[in-house]
Amino acid sequence: MAKLWVPEDLFDNVTDQVERQQDQLQQQADANATIYDMGFDPRRFESRISRFYQIEDKQTRLMVPWGPLLSQRRAQKRLMRDILQALQKPGPVRMLVLKGRRVGSSTATILIMLELVMMLPWRAAIIAHSDESARTLLDIARRTFQRIPASEKPPLYKDNEMRLEWGEPRKFNRARGSIGHQASLAAYTAKGNYVLSAAGTSLLLLSEAAKYDTVGDLNAQMRFILSAIGSVPTVGPSLIVAETTANGPEGWYPETFKRAAERKPDATGTTWIPHFISYLDDESCAMAVPEKYNWNDWPKEDRPKEIYISNLQGCTKEHLYFRRWKIENDMNMDFQAFDQEFPATAGLAFISSGRRAIPAHYINQQLQFLQDPIARYECILAPGMRGPTQQGVQNA
């Protein structure tokens, strides 16, 4: 009588056992691989930067070659070096970048992501705090890709406002078994619940992660960020960069950055790499001191902090004058606002409360219901009464 076949016998033959062992060995090799094992060539990347890559100059707002500019931008160079060095090790890379305004951390990260998706069959995603920012960040990759000669890049299959896609998934090419290099780079806005609903995103940039107010309160923000992070596999090489200027001392970002600085894993067991960019590292955050400038003409309550900053490594009088000029002309004498937008240390960045009691998106939703007032009255001081003096405001 013939032996009855049962599902347990499915992998009993020797051929299936050998193939299963080979698959397990391949999976183990993939898990221990790095982008360099998979073919990433840093010299080729450096060559592209020097020959083709252009970025917007912060002073003139014109597109200029990135290579010569990068040699002068210490903060961008250091960030790229740290990301590429971290990717030399097997396993996922998770990095938190706390920085000041307009230091180019997003540009540096996006161009690394672009280089990787042009080489590897990976999905990459950019999440920004607004629609305009999402489009602007994807345009950095798009403009850069357009400047690379066709002979040195894979053909682009789809190019729309929020997505770049490589490969030829048309029916004719699938039938031939030739679909080319398949990869994608897409931009999203931080709203909703599951912006990256499917797993398989190997590269993720969370731009201005501390400012994801559109998703709701702090708990909703944390759920949103954890959902996005969960779409990136934890086995094999992958990269998540969460970069931002500070936005108050509460929320997922400051809490995670603090634990990362203490070398502690977050609530999910992930160990992040903290990367801080001080305004003292930004060459554009220094101004020539006017001749005969009076350093004593400054509010006394800020003097202890200014002395503390002056003793930090790399601080010059030009940095201190930039700080004073910015606080006086752009910050309405709000010292904490400067610390948040142009931090000298990570601790100073999180002091200011950048979060409203009522989230901005709730207020914006009510604007459509507002009506013009029936009458408007101006407050006029009675004769003989005096308003607060400037000195009084400063001492308040």
Textual characterization of the structure:
The chain has 396 residues and is of the alpha/beta class. It has 15 helices and 10 strands. The chain has helices at 14-31, 42-51, 66-70, 74-86, 105-119, 131-147, 171-176, 218-230, 252-261, 303-310, 317-329, 335-341, 346-349, 360-366, 390-395; strands spanning 54-56, 63-65, 92-98, 123-128, 156-160, 163-166, 183-189, 201-207, 238-244, 273-276. The strands form 2 sheets. The chain has an 8-stranded mixed beta sheet, sandwiched between helices. Strand 1 (54-56) and strand 2 (63-65) form a beta hairpin. The longest helix is centred in the first third of the chain and has 18 residues, at 14-31. The relative contact order is 0.11. Mean pLDDT is 80; it is low at 354-364 and 372-396.
Briefly characterize the structure.
With 396 residues, this protein is of the alpha/beta class.
Topology diagram in text:
Elements: H1 14-31, H2 42-51, E1 54-56, E2 63-65, H3 66-70, H4 74-86, E3 92-98, H5 105-119, E4 123-128, H6 131-147, E5 156-160, E6 163-166, H7 171-176, E7 183-189, E8 201-207, H8 218-230, E9 238-244, H9 252-261, E10 273-276, H10 303-310, H11 317-329, H12 335-341, H13 346-349, H14 360-366, H15 390-395
* Distance between the amino and carboxyl termini: 99 Å
Domain tally: 2
Which strand-content bin applies to the residues? Answer: 5-15%
Helical fraction: 25-40%
CATH topology of the largest domain: Rossmann fold
In CATH, the architecture of the largest domain is: 3-Layer(aba) Sandwich
H-E order: HHEEHHEHEHEEHEEHEHEHHHHHH
Shape: globular
Q: What number is the mean pLDDT? A: 80
DSSP strand tally = 10
User: What about the largest sheet?
Assistant: 8 strands, mixed
Cross-sheet strand order for the largest sheet:
5-6-7-4-8-9-3-10
Q: Any idea what the radius of gyration is?
A: 26 Å
CATH homologous superfamily caption of the largest domain = P-loop containing nucleotide triphosphate hydrolases
- Classification by helices and strands: alpha/beta
Query: Which CATH C-level class of the largest domain is it?
Result: Alpha Beta
Total of DSSP H or I helical runs spanning 4+ residues: 15
Low-confidence parts: 354-364, 372-396
